[in-house]
C-alpha cells in the first residue's frame, strides 16, 4: 500500500504542471498538457495500472471531465481519448465516474441541437459512456441513478446525422437495457428512433438499431399490440427484403423477441412467423441458421407450443440427436401451430398486384415445405393450388421459385397424399381446404355447369395445378413416380372431359407439356397398360384438337414420336395404325363401340374448327398409306361433311383431307367398293358451279380430288357407269372457271377420262366437249393452253373415228393451225404434238391444210415437218 501511495504521488509530482495546465485558460497550454499525458499513459506497456488508477482518481479525472465541455474541439477529443483509455484499461468499477460523466454528457448530448458540435467527439463520448455502462452491474446504485440520463442521451443521439453515432448510440442502449431492472420501462421515443434508424441507408446502422430494438422489447409492457401494428410491422415488412445478411440476422432476432411478447395477438405472431419463414429462404447460411434459431427460441418460450412439442410423438427426437435436428424439430412445431392461420395471408399476397408481396408469399411457402410440419399434408390441396398460382407469375424469378418449391413438395410428401390431392382437385369434392378466401370447387358439376359460381377454381388455377405436377413428380423417388403416373394421367384425362368446353390454348398447352414430361419419366419403361395409353391418347389428341396452337401441335407431334419409340414402333404411322380405334373414337365424341347411328350424329355436327374434326384430320394424315384399312370408317364421315349445303369452310377443309387420302395407294378391292361412292356422293356434288368466291374455292378443291381419283386409277369405266354424263357436264363448266388451277386440273381430268373410253366415248358428249376444249387454246394462261393440247391428243381417240368425219375435225384442225403460229415456242411444240396425233385420223386432210399455210405463217418449220410426215 505504501509503494502504491508512493508511486501515485510520484506521478502527481511528475505531471503536476500538466494537471495545472489542463485548467489553464490558454488553449496551447491545455493541448500540450493533454498531448504529454496521452503520450505517457496510452500504449505504455510499462505502466503500473494500480499507480495509474490512484493518480487518475486523485488528480486526473476531475480536470479531464471538465475538458469534455472545453471550447476547443481538439481538447474535448483528447480528453475523451484519455478518459476512455482509463475506463477500458485502468478502472475496475465506475463508482462516481459514471454519475459525473452522465451529468456532463446529458448537457452536451441530451438535447438537440447538440452543444457538442464535433461528430467524432460525440462518437468518442458515446463510446466512453458505453464502456462505463458495461462495467456496471444491475445492482449498482450509481447505474440506477444514471439510467434516466443515459436514456435521454440515447434518445437524442439516435437522431444524430452521423451514422457511426447512431450505431454507437444503439450499442449504448443495448448495454443499458441489459442492466436495467425488469420493471423499468423504456421510453417510446427511444424505440421509435430505433425503428426509424432500422431503415437507415447504412447496413451497419440498420443492424445495430435492430439489435438494440430487440434488447429493448423486454422492457416494453403496455400496448405492444397496437404499437406493433402501427410502428413495428411496417418497418419489419420492408426490412425482410434487405440484401444485407447481417441485417436479416438481426431482424429475425428482433422478430423472435417481439413474437414472445405476452400481449401480442396471434394474428401479429402469425405475421412475424411469416417474416422469419421468408428470411429462411435466403441464400446466406448465417441467415438461415439465424432464422432456425429464432424458431427454436419461439418454441422454447411460448407455452402452448411447448405443450404441443411435449405431447406430439411425431416430433420426438432421439436423445443423441445433434443440434440441427433439434432446431428442425422445434421449427416444425412452430410452423404446424400457425400454418392454418398463415394460409389466408399467403393467398391474399399471391393475388396482389405488387411483385414484392407475391415474392413474399412464395418464399414463405417454400420455407413451409422445406420445414415440412406434420400437418403439411392436411393442407396439401391449398399449398399445391398456391404454388400453381405462383408458377404462372409474370416474374420469372417468382415462377422459378414456385417450380423448385413444387419439387420440394414432392420430396417431403407421401405419394399417396399427392394422388389423393390431385383426385380432389381434378375430380372429387374438396373439403379440407381454405374455402373462405380460396373458394375451391365444391363439385365438378357445380363448377362447370354454372361457371359463374364463385366456389369453383378458376381455369387459371387449374393451369397452375397441372403446370407444377411434373415438378412435384421430379421430387418423388423414381420407383414411386412410375407407380402413380398412370393414375394421375387418368385424372387428367377425366378432368379434360369436364373442362374441354371451357378450355383455352394455355390450358391445353400446359396439359400437353405435362404429358410430354410424363412420357419422359417413363422413357425406359415398357408400357403395357392399355388404359394408361388410352388416357395419353385422349389428352394428346384432345389437346391438338382443342388448342390448334402451332407450338403445342409441334410438341404433341414430338410426344407421339417419343411415345412411338417407347412402345417399340418404327414410325408414327405405326402408332396411328395400332391405336386407330381409340383416336377415331375421340373424333366421334364417344366410345368406339357406339355404332354408326351415333357416329352420324356427331360427324354432322362438325365445323372446321371443332376438336373432333381436327382429331379426325390428324388421324387420317397420320395413318399415311395405311388409311385404306379403315376406309369403311372414314368414308361415312366424308359423306356427312361434304354435303354442298354444309358450312363452306368445313367442306373445303374436308376436301383437302380427301385429296390427301386419294393420293395414297389403295388395294383394288377398296377401289371397287368405294370409288363410285366417292365420285358420286363426295366429289361431283361439290364441283357444280355456284356463284361466289367461296364456291370457286370449293369447286377447285373438288376438281383436285377428282384429279387424284382419276389419275391414280381409283375409278374405272364400270365405276363411272351412268355418271359419265354428269362428269362431262361438270368438267365443261370447270373449263371456263376463273381459277387457273381449276382449268388446268380439269384438262388433266378430261384427258384421263378420254383414255378410259378408247373409241367408245358417246357422240353426244363428244359433241358437247370439243368446242369447250378448243376455247382453252385461247386461254389467258399458257400452262392451260399446253395442257389442253394433251387433252385434245387423248380426245382424238376417245369417240369412234366416224365422229371425226366432217366438220368436227376440220374445225379442230383450223384452230390448231392458228395456234401453231404462236410466238411462244413451247406453245408451238405443244400444238405440233397435238397435230401429229390428229394426223392419224386423216393424213391427207392435214397435209393439204399444212401446205396451204406455209406462206402465211411467220414460222413455217413445223408446217414443213407435218407435210413431210404425211
Overall mean pLDDT stands at 83
* Biggest β-sheet strands, sense, barrel: none
N-to-C CA distance: 156 Å
Quickly count the helices.
Answer: 46
Short summary of the structure?
This protein is mostly helical and 870 residues long. It contains 46 helices and no strands.
Question: Can you lay out the helices and strands and say which pair or pack?
Answer:
Elements: H1 2-14, H2 16-21, H3 27-41, H4 49-67, H5 73-89, H6 96-109, H7 119-135, H8 141-157, H9 163-177, H10 188-197, H11 203-216, H12 224-239, H13 245-259, H14 266-280, H15 285-301, H16 303-311, H17 323-350, H18 355-371, H19 380-391, H20 396-412, H21 415-426, H22 435-438, H23 444-449, H24 459-467, H25 469-475, H26 478-499, H27 505-521, H28 530-547, H29 550-566, H30 572-578, H31 580-588, H32 596-604, H33 611-623, H34 631-641, H35 648-662, H36 668-687, H37 693-711, H38 717-720, H39 724-735, H40 740-755, H41 763-775, H42 782-795, H43 807-820, H44 825-838, H45 843-851, H46 861-869
Amino acid at each position: 500500500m505504501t509503494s502504491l501511495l508512493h508511486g501515485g504521488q510520484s506521478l502527481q509530482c511528475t505531471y503536476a504542471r500538466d494537471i495545472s495546465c489542463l485548467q489553464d485558460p490558454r488553449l496551447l497550454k491545455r493541448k500540450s498538457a493533454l498531448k504529454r499525458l496521452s503520450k505517457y499513459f496510452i500504449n505504455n506497456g510499462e505502466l503500473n495500472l494500480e499507480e495509474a488508477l490512484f493518480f487518475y482518481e486523485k488528480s486526473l479525472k476531475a480536470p479531464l471531465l471538465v475538458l469534455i465541455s472545453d471550447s476547443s474541439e481538439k481538447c474535448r477529443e483528447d480528453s475523451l481519448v484519455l478518459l476512455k483509455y482509463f475506463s477500458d484499461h485502468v478502472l475496475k468499477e465506475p463508482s462516481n465516474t459514471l454519475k459525473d460523466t452522465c451529468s456532463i454528457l446529458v448537457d452536451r448530448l441530451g438535447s438537440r441541437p447538440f452543444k457538442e458540435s464535433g461528430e467524432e467527439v460525440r462518437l468518442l463520448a458515446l463510446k466512453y459512456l458505453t464502456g462505463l455502462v458495461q462495467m456496471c452491474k444491475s445492482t449498482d446504485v450509481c447505474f440506477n441513478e444514471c439510467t434516466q440520463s443515459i436514456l435521454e442521451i440515447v434518445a437524442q443521439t439516435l437522431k444524430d446525422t452521423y451514422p457511426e453515432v447512431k450505431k454507437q448510440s444503439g450499442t449504448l442502449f443495448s448495454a443499458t437495457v441489459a442492466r436495467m431492472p425488469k420493471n423499468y420501462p423504456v421510453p417510446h421515443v427511444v424505440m421509435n428512433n430505433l425503428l426509424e434508424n432500422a431503415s437507415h441507408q447504412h447496413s451497419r446502422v440498420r443492424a445495430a438499431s435492430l439489435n438494440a430494438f430487440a434488447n429493448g422489447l423486454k422492457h416494453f409492457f403496455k400496448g405492444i399490440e397496437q404499437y406493433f401494428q402501427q410502428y413495428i410491422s411496417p418497418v419489419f415488412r420492408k426490412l425482410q427484403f434487405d440484401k444485407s445478411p447481417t441485417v436479416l440476422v438481426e431482424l429475425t432476432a428482433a422478430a423472435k423477441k417481439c413474437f414472445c411478447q405476452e400481449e401480442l395477438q396471434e394474428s401479429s405472431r402469425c405475421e412475424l412467423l411469416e417474416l422469419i419463414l421468408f428470411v429462411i429462404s435466403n441464400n446466406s447460411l448465417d441467415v438461415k441458421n439465424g432464422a432456425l434459431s429464432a424458431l427454436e427460441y419461439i418454441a422454447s418460450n411460448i407455452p402452448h407450443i411447448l405443450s404441443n412439442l411435449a405431447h406430439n410423438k411425431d416430433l420426438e427426437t432421439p436423445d443423441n440427436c445433434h443440434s440441427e435436428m433439434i432446431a428442425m424439430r422445434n421449427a416444425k412445431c412452430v410452423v404446424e401451430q400457425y400454418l392454418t392461420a398463415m394460409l389466408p395471408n399467403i393467398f391474399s399476397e399471391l393475388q396482389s398486384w405488387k411483385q414484392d408481396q407475391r415474392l413474399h408469399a412464395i418464399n414463405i411457402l417454400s420455407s413451409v415445405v422445406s420445414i415440412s410440419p406434420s400437418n403439411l399434408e392436411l393442407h396439401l390441396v391449398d399449398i399445391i393450388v398456391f404454388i400453381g398460382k405462383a408458377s404462372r407469375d409474370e416474374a420469372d424469378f417468382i415462377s422459378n421459385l414456385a417450380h423448385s418449391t413444387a419439387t420440394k413438395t414432392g420430396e417431403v410428401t407421401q405419394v399417396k397424399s399427392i394422388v389423393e390431392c390431385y383426385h380432389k382437385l381434378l375430380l372429387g369434392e374438396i373439403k379440407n381446404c381454405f374455402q373462405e378466401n380460396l373458394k375451391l370447387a365444391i363439385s365438378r358439376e357445380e363448377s362447370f355447369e354454372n361457371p359463374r359460381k364463385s366456389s369453383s377454381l378458376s381455369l387459371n388455377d387449374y393451369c397452375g395445378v397441372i403446370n407444377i405436377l411434373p415438378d412435384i413428380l421430379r421430387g418423388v423417388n423414381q420407383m414411386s413416380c412410375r407407380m402413380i403416373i398412370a393414375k394421375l394421367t387418368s385424372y387428367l384425362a377425366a378432368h379434360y372431359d369436364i373442362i374441354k368446353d371451357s378450355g383455352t390454348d394455355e390450358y391445353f398447352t400446359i396439359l400437353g407439356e405435362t404429358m410430354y414430361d410424363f412420357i419422359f419419366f417413363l422413357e425406359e419403361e415398357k408400357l403395357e397398360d392399355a388404359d394408361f395409353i388410352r388416357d395419353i391418347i385422349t389428352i394428346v389428341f384432345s389437346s391438338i384438337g382443342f388448342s390448334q396452337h402451332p407450338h403445342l401441335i409441334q410438341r404433341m407431334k414430338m410426344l407421339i414420336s417419343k411415345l412411338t419409340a417407347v412402345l417399340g414402333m418404327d414410325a408414327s404411322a405405326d402408332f396411328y395404325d395400332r391405336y386407330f380405334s381409340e383416336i377415331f373414337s375421340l373424333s366421334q365424341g364417344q366410345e368406339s363401340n357406339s355404332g354408326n347411328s351415333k357416329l352420324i350424329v356427331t360427324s354432322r355436327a362438325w365445323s372446321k374448327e371443332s376438336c373432333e374434326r381436327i382429331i379426325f384430320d390428324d388421324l387420317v394424315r397420320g395413318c399415311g398409306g395405311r388409311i385404306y384399312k379403315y376406309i369403311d370408317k372414314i368414308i361415312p364421315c366424308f359423306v356427312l361433311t361434304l354435303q354442298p349445303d354444309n358450312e363452306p369452310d368445313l367442306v373445303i377443309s374436308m376436301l383437302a383431307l380427301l385429296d390427301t387420302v386419294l393420293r395414297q395407294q389403295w388395294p383394288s378391292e377398296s377401289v371397287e367398293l368405294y370409288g363410285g361412292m366417292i365420285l358420286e356422293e363426295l366429289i361431283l356434288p361439290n364441283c357444280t358451279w355456284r356463284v361466289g368466291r367461296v364456291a370457286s374455292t370449293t369447286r377447285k378443291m373438288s376438281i383436285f380430288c377428282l384429279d387424284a381419283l382419276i389419275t391414280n386409277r381409283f375409278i374405272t369405266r364400270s365405276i363411272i357407269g351412268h355418271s359419265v354424263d354428269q362428269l362431262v357436264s361438270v368438267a365443261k363448266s370447270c373449263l371456263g372457271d376463273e381459277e387457273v388451277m381449276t382449268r388446268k386440273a380439269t384438262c388433266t381430268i378430261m384427258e384421263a377420262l378420254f383414255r378410259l373410253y378408247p373409241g367408245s366415248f358417246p357422240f353426244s358428249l363428244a359433241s358437247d366437249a370439243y368446242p369447250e376444249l378448243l376455247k382453252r387454246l385461247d386461254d389467258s394462261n399458257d400452262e392451260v393452253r399446253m395442257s389442253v393440247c394433251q387433252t385434245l391428243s387423248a380426245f382424238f381417240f376417245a369417240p369412234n373415228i366416224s365422229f371425226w368425219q366432217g366438220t368436227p375435225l376440220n374445225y379442230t384442225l383450223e384452230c390448231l393451225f392458228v395456234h401453231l403460229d404462236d410466238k411462244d415456242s413451247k406453245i408451238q411444240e405443244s400444238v405440233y404434238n397435238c397435230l401429229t396425233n390428229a394426223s392419224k385420223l386423216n393424213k391427207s386432210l392435214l397435209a393439204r391444210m399444212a401446205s396451204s399455210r406455209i406462206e402465211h405463217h411467220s414460222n413455217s418449220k413445223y408446217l414443213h415437218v407435218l407435210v413431210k410426215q404425211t
